[in-house]
Amino acid sequence: MKMFLIKSAWDNITFNKKRNTFSILLIAIASASILLFQGYVEYSKQGMALGFIQKSGNIQIRVKGPHDTFQKDANLLTAKDILQLREFCAQLPEITDIDAVLEFNGIIGTEKNSSIFWGAAYDKPHAVGITAGTPVFADDRAVVLGELLFEELEMDLDNTENFVNIMTTTITGDIATASFDVNGYLATGNFQTDSGLVITSRKAVLDLFELEDSANYLRLFLKNDKDLEKVEKGIQEFFIKHNLNFETANWKQLNPEWEKITGLNTVQFSVVSVILCVLIFVSLTQSLSASFMERIGEFGTMEAIGLKKSSVILLLLVESCMLSLFGIALGVLLSQFGNVITTALKIELVPPGYTKAYALNFYIDLTAIVITQSFIFITCLIAVVYPIYTVKKYSSMNLINYNGA
């Protein structure tokens, strides 16, 4: 009986090729639209999170208390602290990289212009990236500037003698100055950051300002952010067990704006999602229901020649399922094709408050496919409720002569 229903449904679909082709295309377009929208929402969320993690790390470890590098009461990680923390964190399989960071600020200038800056010195400054120029490595006495700061100081990459003078205050309260070569600039896309960012090597800062080996904090990068809570809890337990005066902060705590922006985006996307789902639901149910109602006499004929009413109803359900599955499969392919085309065309968007454009992309995973396509599938099943009600209500002769009245 099952094979008979499936074969009959397939025969009905192929017999009514034109009508069912349009139905499948409608389902595919609806499927692709809602999947791409969900992919864009997830890409926006994940992309923003990755940007914050790249800057701050998944977890930071620092000494409890004030952390300003050039204050007398600053609590910095010492060489002993850094070594102890590195040895412990290196044993954790979830951690992929450890980087010590020393922050500093002051005035930066050339013969023509000067400006205030806020800098970060890394063990691996080249890992931060660069937009134009040459990355700074651990042993380099050079800096990478924020794009807007680079422009304000009238730097030129074609000039082989690019250098800046930096003045800051040491822990002892003395004023320290040093000259650095300028290797290039980095565009983060954030106006405030690009206006005063200075990136250099931690070794260079320690040497030039005659500081002992120290850092404001250690950045820990994880293989998977899903392990964040587990790893952070394990580190805190290690501190308690060995009575260590350290504290941790995860990237969400360090970047509270992420929660605010994500919350706002979630509300906006939820409203759009509801509108999109309502439009898809109405269009699919109306179109598919009308398509089946046009063939109601055909179902009456099936009943008249001996097919049970229950079998006719099952046939309607099987045919609806097959149409929805064909449409969903085509929709998933269309969404993937759309993602590839978007990537190839390099379409870019500039988020509010940013100066840098980001490539438009869609993050489509199995979870998104299951959630969105389940909605499409259920909608297609709901579309045959009225035709099923009609088949169940009327006799075969009434169905054959049914005119919609």
Automatic annotation (TrEMBL):
GO MF terms, alphabetically ordered: transmembrane transporter activity
All copies of domain ABC3 transporter permease C-terminal, residue ranges: 271-394
Species name: Treponema phagedenis
Keyword Cell membrane: yes
InterPro entries named among the record's database cross-references: ABC3_permease_C (IPR003838), Macrolide_Exporter_MacB (IPR050250)
Membrane topology: Multi-pass membrane protein
Family: Belongs to the ABC-4 integral membrane protein family.
Primary localisation category: membrane
This protein's name: FtsX-like permease family protein
GO cellular component: plasma membrane
